[in-house]
Design a protein that fits this description.
The structure holds 2 protein chains of 2 kinds. Chain A is of the alpha/beta class. Chain A has 14 helices and 15 strands. The longest helix of chain B has 16 residues. Chain B is globular and about 65 Å long. Chain B starts with a strand and ends with a strand. Chain B folds into 2 domains: 244 residues, Peroxisomal Thiolase, Chain A, domain 1 (3-Layer(aba) Sandwich), CATH 3.40.47; 143 residues, Thiolase/Chalcone synthase (Peroxisomal Thiolase, Chain A, domain 1, 3-Layer(aba) Sandwich), CATH 3.40.47.10. Classes of the chains: A alpha/beta, B alpha+beta.
Chain lengths: 432, 403
């Protein structure tokens, strides 16, 4: 591929975090539980009853919307699809965490929001289908169901609610690129700040796919885990007995900010965004080549853009979806790029504990990297029991590790043949 | 830094015609592609008219074994991509595949396959859902299939933002070229919402005109307007680095400048819509008086038309010559494909020195002072402003200057 010089541009840092995940509603709880290595995956007997091969999932328990947001500010939010609710709750957290809520009052035109999702409000679509067809017994009949139907398909809807609440009057839109969409939204936000279009961007992802249509769609193509094991062990990235991913849900939001802007207001800086890269494999909508070339390409590209040598990467939060193809594909890619150094890089999969929440999984991976930079702790890949001869790198199996992270990478792959990566650096003052 | 990219190819799959020539001839002739829906029996729906594409065969563009895996909205995108590449005289074999991208707007995924999957699930059971559903239904499916069909390996992204889905894609695509991410981009969008479930989804927001018979119901800025009419189709534009297009001697239809995107965060007013237009003008170093024609959102809803009309009258009050053109009245609103289609119209109008008519708009609403013509107008239309506005208040404006 062509070599390109990437010009010095404005620097971008992360100054706020919000997360609604199965293992934590808030960054500290999420980091704590990731480090503990606890699985939140459960069985759902109803999945077998409807004829699925997989019977495991991961869900957010005890989500209390009003404990996250003041419902007076979001009329009707409690009736909207969970993906909207999770997104708004995570967005509120991120804005509060960044201490930007007041800044936007007189500065809103330099602040924007980009969200993302893979399949948005699918539960609402399914409910409305049931309503309009007597659960498939009739043709689709028109009934008054209101705008919640349409809004559940608008992936920027949580972003728009947040923009209005906090007076962010810059760009407000969404990316729909499936399982890379979260880190893609971060990438689009990064570009807007670097090129001086804007100073502050929220980048978010929100997903609530837990409904029968999603299960059936993914199960029929054998994407979901069918490993015969205890439910909490069903997501087993890089393990020889892995058989598919475990569907999950949740939202993640980070605040991206131009460095000088963040310094001038004394913001807490979690990390600097060093690069974002994304390629398409042009191979297949779901299949991946075992040699890992597309992923190797995008990993190398993100290193080149960041101006980093391969050996400088201290940690990779991997896509690690627990599908037979993906985990081999990724492992091969890391060997291609990092060569002998590949075995020295700790690689872990957050999905081993909380499954795959499609778009938001990669942004949860980003938040995991931010935690590792801050706490010098790398969370484990749990359920690693049976070594796969072809997956032989350091997956931080089963127990968290103390490890200083100066440069951390996040990788993501998705349907449509998309592969995206981002690199984050510990912020060490202007000397970096 | 140059703030523009070259547009060197146009691919249209539109209710008015497949391919730019048929589309353009029908548009200038004032033909109305809004018709009674015949693809299924719409008699139980409150909306029975739409811009429906007839005579499109996916096998003209795709092998059958691939076509069967895809929803209609991806068929349209693959076809429009082919037409655009051919129009630009581009052989992608000659390009580094990692420097080529696909940037599309699509609003809500594949409706045919979504309905099929739901009926399979409820009537036959979970194991009988078709295996293409997972990759045919989600809104990034067209991007994926276009990248696979044409061997494209660079940065590709898809966007959702209601009526500004396609404008979002173009906004980011121009940036991707100017910042060195891609050298060549297939940019635009695609939609195929004409199914019972899809129409109900749109209708329930209140934006669609209730029409069971009236084919002239899409009337932007008109006193008698009652809402938007849905259309379907795909438009793909070839965006290239200006230097590359010049050095290969390409036919450059026009230069697309960096756009501006704003949001009505502080209540419904037209201040941020104005700001998006003012900033878009600045990115192209044009003044308000330089603009020959504005292609607005033209949603045909009271709320959207009012914001647009008042903002345009304010920003362009010193410009005594500019036209407003709303070509989408002739083929319906294409959402993810709408802005790329407006740009295609603008480029063809500049090239042919004819502004196509805005059909249906007969009686401008009180207080609107907009130059909207129901007949074709001859003249120079080379400085064009495109504005898109989503229902919840995202505004995107971008400038095109034609040579």
């Amino acid at each position: 591929m062509g070599t390109k010089k990437y010009a010095m541009k404005r620097r971008v840092v992360i100054t706020g975090i919000g997360i609604i995940a199965p293992n934590g509603q808030g960054k500290e709880e999420f980091w704590d539980n990731c480090a503990k290595g606890t699985s939140y995956i459960i069985s759902d007997p109803r999945m077998l009853e409807i004829g699925l091969k997989s019977s495991v999932l991961c869900k957010i328990k005890d989500f209390d919307l009003k404990s996250h947001v003041n419902l007076d500010h979001y009329e009707g939010l409690s009736d909207l699809d969970p993906f909207v609710q999770y997104g708004v709750a995570a967005g509120e957290q991120a804005i509060i965490d960044s201490c930007l809520a007041d800044v936007s009052n007189d500065y809103g035109e330099r602040m924007g929001i980009i969200f993302s999702s893979a399949i948005g409000g699918t539960p609402t679509f399914v409910n409305i289908f049931e309503d309009l067809t007597e659960s498939g017994k009739t043709h689709i009949q028109h009934k008054s169901v209101g705008s919640r139907f349409y809004n559940s398909g608008m992936f920027n809807y949580p972003a728009m609610l947040l923009a209005k609440k906090f007076n962010f009057s810059g760009p407000c839109t969404s990316v729909s690129t499936g399982c890379t969409a979260g880190v893609d939204a971060l990438g689009m936000a990064y570009h807007l700040i670097r090129s001086n279009e804007i100073d502050v961007m929220l980048a978010g992802a929100s997903e609530a796919p837990l409904t029968n249509l999603t299960y059936a769609t993914l199960d029929v193509i054998n994407a979901m885990s069918t490993t015969e094991c205890e439910p909490h062990k069903a997501s087993r990235p890089f393990d020889a007995k892995r058989s598919g991913f475990v569907i999950s849900e949740g939202a993640a939001v980070v605040v991206l900010e131009e460095l000088e802007h963040a310094l001038a207001r004394g913001a807490h800086i979690y990390a600097e965004v060093k690069s974002f890269a994304s390629v398409s494999n042009s191979h297949h909508m779901t299949d991946l080549p075992a040699d890992g070339v597309p992923m190797a390409t995008v990993v190398q590209l993100s290193l080149d853009k960041a101006g980093l040598a391969p050996k400088e990467i201290d940690y990779i939060n991997a896509h690690g979806s627990s599908t037979p193809q993906n985990d081999l594909f990724e492992t091969s890619a890391y060997k291609v790029v990092f060569k002998e150094h590949a075995k020295n890089i700790p690689i872990s999969s957050t999905k081993s504990m909380i499954g795959h929440s499609l778009s938001s999984a990669s942004l949860m991976g980003v938040i995991s990297v931010l935690g590792s930079i801050r706490r010098s702790v790398i969370h484990p890949t749990i359920n690693y029991e049976f070594p796969d001869n072809d997956c032989d790198l350091d997956y931080v199996s089963n127990k968290a590790r103390y490890h200083k992270v100066r440069y951390g990478m996040v990788t993501a792959s998705g349907f449509g043949g998309i592969h995206s990566t981002a690199i984050f650096a510990k912020y060490e003052g202007t000397a970096l | 830094m140059s703030k523009c990219v070259a547009i060197t190819g146009i691919g249209l799959v539109n209710p008015l015609g497949i391919g730019k020539k048929k589309f353009w001839d029908n548009l200038v002739a004032g033909k109305n592609a809004v018709q009674i829906i015949t693809r299924f029996d719409p008699k139980h729906l409150p909306v029975q008219v739409a811009g429906q594409i007839d005579g499109f065969n996916p096998k003209d563009f795709l092998p059958s074994r691939l076509a069967v895996k895809m929803d209609r909205f991806a068929h349209y995108a693959v076809a429009a991509s082919k037409l655009a590449l051919d129009d630009a005289d581009i052989d992608l074999q000659e390009y580094d595949p990692y420097r080529v991208g696909v940037w599309f707007g699509n609003n809500a995924g594949g409706w045919d396959i979504c309905e099929r999957g739901l009926f399979e699930l409820y009537r036959d059971g979970a194991p009988f859902v078709n295996p293409w559903q997972a990759t045919a239904w989600f809104p990034t499916s067209p991007q994926g299939y276009v990248s696979i069909t044409y061997g494209i390996k660079g940065m590709c992204k898809s966007f959702i933002c209601d009526r500004a889905s396609g404008a979002s894609a173009l906004y980011f695509a121009v940036r991707a070229i100017l910042e060195g991410e891609c050298d060549l981009i297939l940019a635009g969008g695609t939609e195929a919402p004409l199914t019972p479930f899809g129409i109900i989804c749109y209708y329930e927001t209140g934006v669609l005109a209730s029409s069971t018979q009236n084919l002239n119901v899409y009337r932007p800025f008109d006193k008698l307007r009652s809402g938007t009419v849905l259309g379907e189709g795909s438009t793909v534009l070839i965006l290239e680095k200006l230097e590359d297009a010049e050095s290969r001697g390409a036919n450059i239809y026009g230069k697309l400048y960096l756009g501006s995107m704003t949001t009505d965060a502080d209540g419904v007013n037209n201040k941020n819509y104005q700001y998006s237009q003012v900033r878009a003008l600045a990115n192209a170093n044009l003044s308000v008086d330089d603009i020959d024609v504005i292609y607005p959102e033209a949603a045909g809803t009271l709320a959207s038309d009012l914001v647009e009309a008042e903002a345009i009258q304010e920003v362009f009050r010193s410009n005594l010559k500019f036209h407003i053109a709303c070509p989408k009245a002739s083929y319906g609103h294409l959402y993810g494909a709408s802005t790329a289609t407006d740009i295609a119209v603008g480029l063809l109008a500049a090239k042919n020195q004819v502004l196509p008519p805005t059909i249906n708009t007969e009686f401008l609403d009180d207080g609107f002072d907009l130059n909207i013509q129901s007949q074709p107008v001859s003249g120079s239309f080379s400085n064009m402003l495109f504005s898109s506005r989503a229902r919840e208040g995202s505004n995107v404006s971008m400038l095109v200057i034609s040579n």
